Amino acid sequence: MILRELFMAIAGLVDLAFSLYIFVLVARAVLSWVNPDPYNPIVRFIHAATDPVLFRIRKLVPLQFSGIDFSPLLLLVALSFVQRILHAILVQIAYSF
Predict the structure, then answer these.
(1) Left, alpha or beta for 34 (phi > 0: left; psi -120 to 50: alpha)?
(2) Distance separating alpha carbons of residues 21 and 90, to the nearest angstrom
(3) Cα→Cα distances 85→6, 44, 81, 97, Å
(4) Which long-range contacts (CB under 8 A, 24 or more apart) does 73-77 make?
(5) CA atoms within 13 A on the CB side of 3
(6) 69: helix, coil or strand?
(7) What is the distance between the alpha carbons of residues 85 and 78, in angstroms, rounded to a whole number?
(8) What are phi and psi of 62, to 5 degrees?
(9) How far, in Å, CA of 88 to CA of 60, rounded?
(10) Which of 4, 59, 68, 83 counts the most CB atoms within 10 A of its CB?
C-alpha cells in the first residue's frame, strides 16, 4: 500500500515537472515575439532553461523556414508524448503493488 502511494506521488511529481517545463517553453516562444530586456532575471532563467535543449534540437534537425523556428514546437510535442508515457508507466507500476 505504501509503495503504491509512493509511485503515485512520483508519477504526480514527474507530471508536474514536465508541465512546468512545457510552461517555460511556451513562455520562451512568447518572448521570442517581443524584444524583452536580456538582463531581466526571469528572461535569463527562461533562456538558460531552454537553450541547451533547443540548441541540440536545432543541431540535429534544422527546423527554420522563412525565419520562423519550429524547434520549440517539436520539443513541445516530444515532451507531451514522453510525459504521457512516463505518467502511464508509473501509474501502472503503482497499481501493480
Answers:
(1) beta
(2) 19
(3) 18, 31, 6, 19
(4) 75/25, 76/22, 76/25, 76/26
(5) 6
(6) strand
(7) 11
(8) -70, 110
(9) 28
(10) 83
Give the cell for residue 64.
527554420
Cα 45 to Cα 6: distance, rounded to the nearest angstrom: 31
pLDDT in tens, the chain (97 residues): 899 999 999 999 999 999 999 999 999 999 988 989 999 999 999 999 999 999 999 998 887 778 788 899 999 999 999 999 999 999 999 999 8
> Furthest-apart CA pair in the chain: how many Å?
55
Q: How many residues make up the chain in this entry?
A: 97
- For residue 39, give the amino acid letter: Y
Assessment of whether the complete model's pTM goes beyond 0.90: no
Over its C-alpha atoms, the chain yields an Rg (Å, rounded) of 17
